[in-house]
Amino acid sequence: MAQPTPLLGIKVLDLSRVLAGPWCGQMLADYGADVIKVERPGEGDDTRGWGPPWFGDAADQMSAYYLCTNRGKRSAAIDIASLEGRAMARQLAAEADVLIENYKVDQLAKYGLDAASLRALNPGLIYCSITGFGQTGPDAHRAGYDFAIQAAGGLMSITGEREGTPGSEPQKVGVAVVDLMTGVYATTAILAALHERHRTGLGTHIDMALLDVQVAMLANQASNHLVGGTTPKRMGNAHSNIVPYQVFATRDGHLVLSLGNDTQFAKFCELAGHPEVAKDERYAGNAGRVVRRAELVPQLAAWMLAHDTAEWVRLLDAAGLPCAPIATIPQVLASPQVQARGMRRELPTADGRRMPMVAAPVLFDGERAISALAPPGLDEHGDAVRAALSTRSGWPLANSHASDKS
Predict the structure, then answer these.
(1) What is the structure's pLDDT at 401?
(2) Is-contact 90 57, C-beta < 8 A?
(3) 3-state SS string for the chain
(4) Distance (Å, rounded) from C-alpha 129 to C-alpha 214?
(5) How far is the C-alpha of 306 from the C-alpha of 30, rounded, in Å?
(6) For the domain 245-326, what is the CATH superfamily, name and number?
(7) Taking phi first (over 0 means left), then psi (-120 to 50 degrees means alpha), and beta for anything else, what does residue 201 get?
(8) Using CB atoms within 10 A as the burial measure, which of 14, 67, 156, 363 is most buried?
(9) CATH value of 11-216+338-390 in 3.40.50.10540, 3.90.550.10, 2.30.130.10, 3.90.228.20
(10) Max CA distance (Å), the chain
């Protein structure tokens, strides 16, 4: 299968590290862009050390965390604090279409690698800055990490079991969802800027803030406050605007039941043997069910104990009602649907090993967009990059899937 390459010919200089910026760079690489990742000599991206688990031998091991977000890139170790290093970075930026960075505000200006300096050098450059709090405002110079932004941005106030439940406390999401969504938003902004450049010939400076993304992600919860004047609270696995839309215990486990309209609720009541409940004017409409959640949900919970999880899934699926058992990650990756969709892949490394990966979730004309280039070792392509820059031969050309180091 050939990789779709809608961004073929687009050159990306990735000066970012950890997750939000690298996630954006990986998405662009999966779409066919040529991405050069600049890393600190001797150390590289912080996430290279975020293990175990590790892939590879002790001499060249990479953390599983690093692997998940750096596919499709070439690595060059460049010390931008040195005169030589910053000159190399400027050479690369002079020919790049896109630059991604997540340094603190104004930190790159002392090296002449800030947006104003590089766009003066390359007016067509799309320069994407990713920070915790953005380029402006009273908190602009504060460091921001996903966990802290989930707290400061309100997500943890609505995540976790209901207040007063034994052991309840605010919870973060199980993956760094703000970083990931910032990477996705950054990617869409870059694609929009590339489209605009076709019209104007000019690049732009994109200002991405994790806090802004988190606030936008509050979605209906923020709207509930703005429209209803309420303060959304933690509700465990329940939904603030829909009932029933939560986890229920079954005879042998748990099941997610998510009924989004009145017709689905009526079908469920009939399936459970209690059609009269859906005809009761107190519960017939979703608004009534939300208001009377405390009296209705215990009734539904008692019904759910009548069958095992597998039997409920069979019955609900047959009736076309949304439901799902709660799967572990190994179960997800081994599921026939995930396998059939090609979401689990292995990429060949330069030395012939097979690196397990989760693929990108996008298909173009039925073909999945995933770079065939495995995440690079630190400075794996540095010799070729430095050689090209020293001879001033332009942007170093990609060299298939193999390492550029001998």
Answers:
(1) 38
(2) no
(3) CCCCCCCCCCEEEECCCCCHHHHHHHHHHHCCCEEEEEECCCCCCHHHHCCCCEECCCCCCEEHHHHCCCCCEEEEECCCCCHHHHHHHHHHHHHCCEEEECCCCCHHHHHCCCHHHHHHHCCCCEEEEEECCCCCCCCCCCCCCHHHHHHHCCHHHHCCCCCCCCCCCCCCCCCCHHHHHHHHHHHHHHHHHHHHHHHHCCCCEEEEEHHHHHHHHCHHHHHHHHHHCCCCCCCCCCCCCCCCEEEEECCCCEEEEECCCHHHHHHHHHHCCCHHHHHCCCCCCHHHHHHCHHHHHHHHHHHHCCCCHHHHHHHHHHCCCCEEECCCHHHHHHCHHHHHCCCEEEEECCCCCEEEEECCCCEECCEECCCCCCCCCCCCCHHHHHHHHHCCCCCCCCCCCCCCCC
(4) 16
(5) 47
(6) formyl-coa transferase, domain 3 (3.30.1540.10)
(7) left
(8) 14
(9) 3.40.50.10540
(10) 81
Cα distances (Å, whole numbers) of residue 20 to 57, 69, 164, 195, 199: 27, 9, 34, 22, 28
pLDDT for 405: 43
- Tally of residues, the chain: 406
Question: What is the rounded distance in angstroms from the CA atom of residue 373 to the CA atom of residue 55?
Answer: 16
- Is there a contact between 47 and 146 (Cβ–Cβ < 8 Å)? no
Buried b (16+ CB within 10 A) or exposed e, 342-365: ebebebebbeeeebebebbeeeee
Domain with CATH 3.40.50.10540 in the chain: 11-216+338-390
Are 162 and 171 contacting, i.e. CB atoms less than 8 angstroms apart? no
pLDDT at residue 399, rounded to an integer:
59
pLDDT less than 70: residues of the chain: 1, 399-406
Active-site annotation holder among 34, 146, 179, 207: 179
Query: For position 350, what pLDDT does the model report?
Result: 83
Amino acid in position 39: E
Domain with CATH 3.30.1540.10 in the chain: 245-326
- Cβ(308)–Cβ(250) under 8 Å? yes
Question: What are the residues whose beta carbons fall under 8 Å from the beta carbon of 109, sequence distance 6 or more?
Answer: 116, 117
**pTM, whole model, 2 decimals?**
0.92
